[in-house]
Amino acid sequence: MEKKIKFGIYPNPLPDADGNTTYQVRNEPTMTMNTKDFLAHLKYHNTFSATTMNAALTILREEIVEQLRDNRRFRIDGIGTFQMKVALSDDVDDEGHASRPQVTDPKQITARNVVVAGVTFIPDKSFIDDLKDGTTTINVNGAGVVAASKRHDRQEVINALNKYLAEHGSITRRGLATLLHVSDYEARKWLTLLTTEPYPKYVARKQGNTIVYRRYGNP
Description:
This protein is α+β, with helices and mostly antiparallel strands. The protein contains 6 helices and 10 strands. Helix 1 packs across helix 2.
């Protein structure tokens, strides 16, 4: 059965050299399958043990972390390659607001202000080929319709934030941006609002060179 890859059309934030608005396309996922959902899927659609798979995923995660920390790339044949990503740590003002640093002198960059920023993933060609096989695309908004960026109301943000914090304990600005599928700017606005409103339920704390956000009263 042919699968349909859903996409939407979005304007690029900056115009081109002639001042014209240009457009991009983005995949429009309908849901996120988490580990619990994945293991349940295995239980009903495969003979492979979900318990064994869960253990294998834990071992794989630990091994990827270990290899990246040893300054190696980690390649899984047929899937792709993981590599550590580093960046300059954010500048933090007196009110705890973080911003990206603008460095004009390379001598200003030292080991003290370079931090682990994430992981890049480069998929194998065979992985992409398998993904393309038997698929077509469909515009979820209709031909030529430009989609509006995702807008969340306060309760949606709080529900997503509480669920994440219950599992992970803390979150960064970029973590919230990823969680909500919004820009860093939008994530910062929400976190500033939620930590400065009367009787806030969340608090910002500096952890090393990073600002993390937690439920108020949690260590």
